[in-house]
Structure formats: C-alpha cells, structure tokens
Automatic annotation (TrEMBL):
Gene3D superfamilies, A to Z: 1.10.30.50
Organism: Salibaculum griseiflavum
Domain of life assignment: Bacteria
Keywords, comma-separated and alphabetical: Endonuclease, Hydrolase, Nuclease
GO MF entries: endonuclease activity
Protein name: HNH endonuclease
Length: 99
C-alpha cells in the first residue's frame, strides 16, 4: 500500500482500491447535512453506522468521527473489524438497532 491509499475514518484501516468504500455524511442529508462534511469509510463500516443509529441520532449526537467511535456498539465493531484484512467485506454483524 502506498501513501495514496485512503484510510477509513471509522476503523483507521487502509481502504485498498478493490475494497467497497462509501462517503458518510456526518450530518445526514435528510437532517440538513446535504453539502456538509463527509468522511470516507469502508462500506462495511458505513453499513454498521446505519445499522446502529437512526438518522435523528446521527444528526443530534453522533455527528463527528469521535462520537461515532465512542458509541458502545460501534466501539465493539471497530475492535472486531480491525482484526480483519483491509479489504474485508461482509454483512454487518447483528441486525438493525432495537427500537
């Protein structure tokens, strides 16, 4: 991997060219974040964020990388996914958040 390889803002692992990746709006577009700051993530990391938190929760309390990393479920996920190779992709562990 060269210095040009992007780093996932959530898990901190490199994102190789062949790995699915996506941009995450720190404030969801539906909650006024259109045109706002975005971060590049592994697709698996992005899916886990949206499986864990609602759009309202993201807008209200989890609109920075630091607060996302501090969420208990996401913190456990990061610990789990960091043990996988950078190109690892799979279905998100667990289902949609409990209401």
């Amino acid at each position: 991997m060269n210095s040009e390889t992007p780093i996932c803002a959530l898990c901190g692992r490199p994102i190789p060219p062949e790995a699915p990746q996506s941009l995450h709006h720190l404030v969801p577009k539906l909650k006024g974040g259109k045109g706002g700051p975005t971060v590049l993530l592994h697709h698996i990391c992005h899916k886990e964020i949206h499986a864990t938190l609602s759009e309202a929760e993201l807008a209200r309390a989890y609109n920075t990388v630091e607060t996302l990393r501090a969420h208990p479920r996401l913190s456990r996920f990061i610990g789990w996914v960091r043990k996988r190779p950078p190109g690892f992709n799979s279905r998100s562990k667990g289902g949609r958040r409990k209401r």
